[in-house]
C-alpha cells in the first residue's frame, strides 16, 4: 500500500524558514518512472504545483517561489524535501506531497494528507 506522510509544517514569521519532509512507503523513489512534487492549497484557491523533481533530479518551480524554495529527494531514504526560505504570508497554505508513477497506460497520482504552513507577523 502506498503511503505518503508529510511533516515539518508550522507557524513561522515572515522571512523565516521551514523544511518539509515527505516519507514514502510502497513507492521506490529511485524508479525511472517516478516523479515527485509539492503542491499547496490556500483557502479559496485551487491546488497549485509549487515544485517538481523528476526521476533524473531535474527541478522546476512556480515563479512565485523561485530562488526561495528548493525541492530535493533522497532516494536511499525514500524521502522528499522542500526547503522553504524567506517565507512570505502568501506562502500560507496546506502543502501536499505528490508522487506520480508512470505505467503502460499513463500515470497514477498518490497524495499525502498535507501539512499546514502558516506565515504570519
- State the order of secondary-structure elements, H for helix, E for strand: EEEEEEEEEEE
Largest sheet: 7 strands, mixed
Overall spatial form: globular
Distance between the termini: 40 Å
Fraction in helix = under 10%
Radius of gyration: 14 Å
- Mean pLDDT across every amino acid position: 94
Determine the oligomeric state from the structure: single chain
Describe it.
The protein is mainly beta and 121 residues long. The chain has no helices and eleven strands. The strands form two sheets. Strands 2, 4, 5, 6, 9, 10 and 11 form a seven-stranded mixed β-sheet that branches. Helix content is 0%, strand content 55%. The protein is globular.
Set out the fold topology.
Blueprint: E1 3-7, E2 10-12, E3 18-25, E4 34-41, E5 48-53, E6 59-61, E7 69-74, E8 79-84, E9 93-103, E10 106-111, E11 115-119
Parallel strand pairs: 2-11
Antiparallel strand pairs: 1-3, 3-8, 4-5, 4-9, 5-6, 7-8, 9-10, 9-11
Quickly list its features:
121 residues, 4-stranded antiparallel beta sheet, globular
Task: Describe what is shown at a glance.
This protein is mainly β. The protein is 0% helix and 55% strand. It is built from no helices and eleven strands.
Amino acid at each position: 500500500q502506498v503511503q505518503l506522510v508529510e511533516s515539518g509544517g508550522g507557524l513561522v514569521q515572515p522571512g523565516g524558514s521551514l523544511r518539509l519532509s515527505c516519507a514514502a512507503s510502497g513507492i521506490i523513489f529511485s524508479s525511472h518512472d517516478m516523479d515527485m512534487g509539492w503542491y499547496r492549497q490556500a483557502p479559496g484557491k485551487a491546488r497549485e504545483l509549487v515544485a517538481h523533481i523528476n526521476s533524473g533530479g531535474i527541478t522546476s518551480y512556480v515563479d512565485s517561489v523561485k530562488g526561495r524554495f528548493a525541492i530535493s529527494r533522497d532516494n536511499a531514504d525514500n524521502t522528499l524535501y522542500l526547503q522553504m526560505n524567506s517565507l512570505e504570508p502568501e506562502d500560507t497554505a496546506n502543502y501536499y506531497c505528490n508522487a506520480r508513477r508512470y505505467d503502460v497506460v499513463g500515470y497514477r497520482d498518490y497524495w499525502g494528507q498535507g501539512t499546514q504552513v502558516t506565515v504570519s507577523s
